[in-house]
Specification:
The protein is an alpha+beta fold. Helices cover 29% and strands 20% of the residues. It has seven helices and ten strands. It is elongated and about 65 Å long. The chain starts with 50 loop residues before the first strand and ends with a strand.
């Protein structure tokens, strides 16, 4: 009698069931504030990317802090807020609410809480476009909004993850990384070249005229795009041949 091993996919085309894995918990990181969300979304998923990141805000005295996101789109929305100079703080998984929809008791943990320097606080609900086109989803949103205490925030923002293409997400992640560097001199130098140019078309037109190393000029361009002082199409790969222009 011979035994032959038959690969799973040759006889069962559905994804194999994996044993439930425990939630990933980070140990203490020296000099980094721990994740303080009410719910840790860092468990294994076959449908979305769980993302861990470190971030800094004025609310934390610019000390690095751990954030955990349930999807790449949720992380992109958070980073989009973090790179804005108008943002004072971002909290991940800030609090949960109990609500009832279609006769069933449910619990929902808000994705993000963004506090602006003006004092305005926005809760953010991130969902894909297909889900947002369903009446059932909007019934859930209305129930969640009603169950959320008025003092928790000023607004509940509904964000479609379809607005954050894969390339836009990658560009935002890179911008956030470059913004951790401080190089005001390079940014001022690069921006002055861009403003003085009468034939600015691509990023390389700035870089080749810069009196600093190319890598330093490239990173400065990225930070200026993040600060909205230069304009580029975030849904395309941002590189030396990207079309850029000075913001009005």
């Amino acid at each position: 009698m011979t035994t032959e091993l038959v690969e799973h996919d040759t006889w069962n085309y559905s994804p194999p069931k994996l044993p439930k894995a425990p939630v990933v918990r980070l140990n203490h990181i020296h000099g980094v504030l721990p994740f303080d969300g009410i719910r840790n979304p860092g468990f294994r998923s076959s449908t979305s990317h769980r993302i861990w990141l470190s971030y800094r805000t004025a609310a934390n005295g610019w000390q690095p802090k751990v954030g955990i996101c349930e999807s790449a789109a949720e992380a992109a929305v958070a980073i989009d807020a973090l790179i804005s100079p108008e943002t004072y703080d971002v909290k991940f998984q800030p609090f949960s609410v109990a609500f009832e929809v279609e006769g069933k008791q449910r619990e929902y943990t808000h994705d993000l809480l963004i506090t602006h320097r003006s004092g305005r606080r926005d809760l953010v609900f991130v969902r894909n476009g297909t889900s947002l086109n369903k009446p059932k989803t909007w019934r859930e949103i209305e129930a969640i909004s009603s169950a959320t205490p008025p003092q928790a925030a000023d607004n509940l923002l509904i964000v479609s993850s379809d607005d954050y293409s894969r390339q836009r997400r990658e560009n935002l992640f890179r911008m956030h990384q470059f913004l951790q560097e401080e190089d005001v001199e390079a940014e001022n130098h690069v921006l002055s070249i861009a403003k003085a140019s009468k034939s600015l078309w691509q990023m390389k037109d700035i870089i080749k005229s810069a009196q600093i190393p190319k890598a330093r000029a490239f990173r400065a361009c990225y930070r200026l795009i993040a600060r909205k002082k230069l304009i580029a199409n975030l849904d395309h790969v941002i590189l030396e041949t990207s079309r850029v222009q000075v913001a009005a």
